[in-house]
Amino acid sequence: MKSTPDDIRVHSLAQLAQGQDWRLQLVHDRPYHLLVWITRGQGRVLLDGMRRGTGAHNALFVPAGTVFALDLGRQSIGQAVVLPVASPLRVPEIPRHLRIRDAQTQSELTNLIEAAGREEQGKRPLRGDALEAHAALMSVWLRRQIMQEEHVPEKRNAAGRLSKRFCDLLAQRFRSGDTMADYATSLDVTPTHLTRAVKAATGKTASDLLTERVLHEARRLLMETKEPAQQIAAFLGFGSAAYFTRFIQHHTGMPPSKLRGR
């Protein structure tokens, strides 16, 4: 039930959210790589099992299938570049959050994204080739920054390591209907320990993250597909359509049928 883009695309953050804050603020993962460049404003990002503050001139690289959430203030501005998994581009294999302090380096990425955006909007011959070339330069920019000593990731504590493992598992199994006890068993810890560790690393409990991931997918499927609610419920591991309806009503204040019309 997922649609995977075949082309390199450039969006503003507002376009990426499609006018609906939940699309970025709820924990989710995407079937493509995402390079986010924030040029104004502040907020928080949950990425790679950790929650951090983010602000102007922060670059986020989110590999396909990586759980993340982005909560930015209303005045925030930025761009996002969608990179298809099938692309031959060399991109990092792990999520990265880079704070770029050098003005020239900031301008380099801004100019690359703006040039790609102009190319995408144009109808010139070889548009696809040009977009791939721009994206390749963005990839070089990203990998150059990762090589800098200032961008070496901090060592994680035990809670951070467990939180990352949980988020990796969440992306794979959130449709299964598994309970927190099931996740804890797979991670060889107790549910209580899992809850505390994830809370320490992200500010939310493991149960909160599972709920958000399921809710995001439910809302997306209700709004982007014509699949019956009963089929979506089964796809997401709900025991019944009635339970699914109560879940949606509780978290959105509306039944599935009303969400479809929004």
From TrEMBL:
Keyword Lyase: no
PANTHER family, sorted: ARAC-FAMILY TRANSCRIPTIONAL REGULATOR, TRANSCRIPTIONAL REGULATORY PROTEIN
Matches recorded under SUPFAM superfamilies: Homeodomain-like
Family annotation (Pfam families): HTH_18
Protein known as: Helix-turn-helix domain-containing protein
GO MF, one example: DNA-binding transcription factor activity
InterPro entries: Homeodomain-like_sf (IPR009057), HTH_AraC (IPR018060)
Alphabetically ordered keywords of this record: DNA-binding, Transcription, Transcription regulation
Domain HTH araC/xylS-type: 164-262
